[in-house]
């Protein structure tokens, strides 16, 4: 064999063999639960080396850093952020307080303003400082945000069950310690946070015990807002590509059995679609109140916006399915036609669908811009929160 041919084979082997070896090694590593969770949650990646998060004024917030203890003994780092309009009214007393981490938040003026106001509205969310500004700078809403276990200054290691317990702990603190009625609380999640939010509302609204100490709520929340959500982790990873370009598990779909074997070994499933359907069904059966909003950007390169279609479909199936056995449930095709009837086109790659049955309202909104993260600061998300708190345009609702 000529040397030029050998050289060509060697080059081709390097071009295709090295990436394939790296990819296979990556997949094998992902089968190890601890490695898998480190990759999925990325909680070891720290981006605030030069920031002291106990000094939130660096981001321009009227904030009290404190901690919340979960039912299984983990300590969660948390911020309570006051709405700017409220801060202006009490600036003198608030600015006179010591800054930094608060060992006993109950003694602070910030906490008093939340607890003693019978009309105070609270958003529980876990996102980014830019989003906090969008929520608190021009609205009357308080904001409670936590670091999930294993993230930031919180203790523990992230797992599906653990993160749900963390969210339950934040709701429990708001209801039992701060005295905020569930009807004045909006639960918001983005990306992974949508899966956590679906987990906590299932735990608290579907007759289950919310945590290891049996906490549950007896009243419905003001609303649920899911931004850039996904139907389940196995389904999402099947189409996921890093930055929209580098596929993770998509190449394995050529070999269905191998693909199913790999996704079957995911230790945390995060099946939000199933949870959402159950929640909507339970609320409908007891004639409760639910305001559920799904918001996604068309140019989200991390989680495709079609994932919201699955979430919406499952939520609606939970809404329209009849309690009587033997009743026919809408097929996917029939549901699609009904969805189109309720759709308001708001421009290219933009629509709003509103589906109402009784006191349950499910909305899906697609917005052309915002990507995966910046969408949090865009109007559709803030409007979804405002609608949940009662600023609804009833004319949008289809009976």
UniProtKB/TrEMBL annotation:
Gene3D superfamilies: alpha/beta hydrolase. The chain crosses the membrane at residues 6-35. The keyword Acetylation does not apply. The keyword Mitochondrion does not apply. Residues 127-281 form the AB hydrolase-1 domain. Signal peptide: none annotated. It comes from the Eukaryota. Keywords: Membrane, Transmembrane, Transmembrane helix. InterPro entries: AB_hydrolase_1, AB_hydrolase_fold. Pfam families: Abhydrolase_6. PANTHER family: ALPHA/BETA HYDROLASE DOMAIN-CONTAINING PROTEIN, PROTEIN ABHD13. This is AB hydrolase-1 domain-containing protein. It comes from Chaetomium thermophilum (strain DSM 1495 / CBS 144.50 / IMI 039719) (Thermochaetoides thermophila).
């Amino acid at each position: 064999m000529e040397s030029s041919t050998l050289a060509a084979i060697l080059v081709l082997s390097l071009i295709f063999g090295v990436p394939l070896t790296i990819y296979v090694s990556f997949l094998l590593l992902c089968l190890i639960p601890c490695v898998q969770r480190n990759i999925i949650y990325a909680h070891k990646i720290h981006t605030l080396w030069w920031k002291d998060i106990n000094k939130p004024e660096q981001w321009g917030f009227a904030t009290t850093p404190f901690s919340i203890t979960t039912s299984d003994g983990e300590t969660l780092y948390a911020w309570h952020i006051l709405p700017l309009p409220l801060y202006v009214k009490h600036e003198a007393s608030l600015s006179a307080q010591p800054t930094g981490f608060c060992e006993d938040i109950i003694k602070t003026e910030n906490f008093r303003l939340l607890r003693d106001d019978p009309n105070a509205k609270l958003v529980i969310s876990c996102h980014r400082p830019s989003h906090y500004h969008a929520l608190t700078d021009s609205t009357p809403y308080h904001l409670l945000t936590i670091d999930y276990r294993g993230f930031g200054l919180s203790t523990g290691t992230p797992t599906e069950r653990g993160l749900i317990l963390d969210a339950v702990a934040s709701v429990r603190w708001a209801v039992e310690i701060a005295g905020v009625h569930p009807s004045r609380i909006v639960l918001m999640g983005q990306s992974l946070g949508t899966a956590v939010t679906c987990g906590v509302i299932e735990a608290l609204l579907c007759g289950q015990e919310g945590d290891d100490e049996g906490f549950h709520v007896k009243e419905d929340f003001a609303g649920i807002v899911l931004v850039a959500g996904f139907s389940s982790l196995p389904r999402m990873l099947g189409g996921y590509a890093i930055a929209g370009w580098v596929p993770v598990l998509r190449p394995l779909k050529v070999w269905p059995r191998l693909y199913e074997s790999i996704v079957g070994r995911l230790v945390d499933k995060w099946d939000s679609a199933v949870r959402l359907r159950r929640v909507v069904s339970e609320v409908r059966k007891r004639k409760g109140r639910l305001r559920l909003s799904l918001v996604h950007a068309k140019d989200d390169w991390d989680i495709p916006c079609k994932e919201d279609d699955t979430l919406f479909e499952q939520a609606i199936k939970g809404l329209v399915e009849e309690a009587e056995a033997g009743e026919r449930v809408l097929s996917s095709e029939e549901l699609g036609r009904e969805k189109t009837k309720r759709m308001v086109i708001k421009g290219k790659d933009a629509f709003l669908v509103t589906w109402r049955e009784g006191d349950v309202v499910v909305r899906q909104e697609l917005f052309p811009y915002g990507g995966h993260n910046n969408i949090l600061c865009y109007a559709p998300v803030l409007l979804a929160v405002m609608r949940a708190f009662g600023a609804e345009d009833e004319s949008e609702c289809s009976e």
